[in-house]
Amino acid sequence: MAEKGNIEEYNCTWGAFMSWVAEDPFERLDLPENLNLETGKLLFAYPPFCSKEGNEAVIKPIDGEEPIRFHADFARQINSA
Question: What is the pLDDT of residues 6-32, one digit of tens each?
Fold first, then answer.
């Protein structure tokens, strides 16, 4: 839901969340097992989860600035519609 600017509070610290994820990142974040995330890459899901096609999203690593720019533009588009 962050794609639309909505976030939820999970009643834990950032450190606790990161420790929980670190136990099994693929399971905890529901990531593809064959994902190879290198330093400087960020996860990118396309099409966005909040779109009607979002249940068919493909998650892949891409250069760090690219998903930030995409999501900033996407948020502008859906918030001005």
Answer: 677 778 898 999 999 899 988 988 888
